[in-house]
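Hi R.,

Here's the chain you asked about this morning:
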Amino acid sequence: MVNILYTNDGIVARFYQNGQLINQESNPSGSEIVMANDIAFGRMNHPGYDAFNGNLDDIGIWNRALTTQEISDLYNGCTNPPIASIASSGNTTFCDGGSVILDANTGTNFTYQWYRNGTLIPNATNISYSANQEGTYTVSINNGECSAVSNAIVVTVNPLPTVNFNALTPLVSKNANAINLSGTPNGGSFSGVGVSGNQFIPFNAGLGSKTLTYSYTDGNGCTNTAYQSVIVYDTIACSVSDTLIMDVLLSVNPLTYNTIKVYPNPGNTTLFINTGNFTTMSNYSIRIDNSLGQQVYTTPINQQEYTIDISSWSNYGTYFLHLIDSTGNSVEIKKIILQ
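And the predicted structure, written out as tokens:
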């Protein structure tokens, strides 16, 4: 009696005789084998070919490529097969980005190999496996003599909803009216500093860069979030030769201020900054951005007078002067005009 077994894992086709590998070659047809005709055992599936003259004792078909150990077990028989089973430690249906731990049973000298959809998972040889992809999972357990394949567990991964937060004006005056917020799909919620319901209130948000969020949860319980950023600035009426004044609160007890002056505003060729008692503003800095949020100037505050050549700045229009504290936060934002 001769035992013949053929396996194909989509990469290599292998032929075994009596439990021993006798030939193998790379699979020329890719990962799938497609046959238009019925499968025939014992003869070619074409007219005119004689059938096999003998007995076929047993025929088996598996939905995956068996391991070498499993093939040897089939031929030689096994007197001490392991018991193979798996269970999940949590819900096997979850949202994209989640996972579930699958645990196999323990046993003396057990080794493990995990499979997804019948395909070996590389390096998945521990007693547990963290599944984060959709599919059907099994484990093959070997006890040093025989192998056994566990029950299957199906893992379902639900996609996250597509969430959009409709665009906001990137720069908003602190004194502007409340801004209505909108996002899709409908039914989500807005959050962030200065947000009340579905409105953003600049005055409540305070000065500086703010990040607003819109979160939505679908019928599967999957949540996704979209973000928008907005800069709240303090606007000042501008006329020729105006001086922009910032009274900076440095401490409450004792009450301490320092006054910074920026002039002329609007400007044309040169901008002057007087930082007052600059020694009280250690680790503070000044940054100037254009209306696109691109930095055009920055300096630490370590002297009283600064003279800035603005004639080389490429565009006329509105710029924003940020006073940055020692933690990197904008504590004051003022509008300056280049004309």
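The helical segments are 68-76, 202-205.

Let me know if you need anything else.
M.
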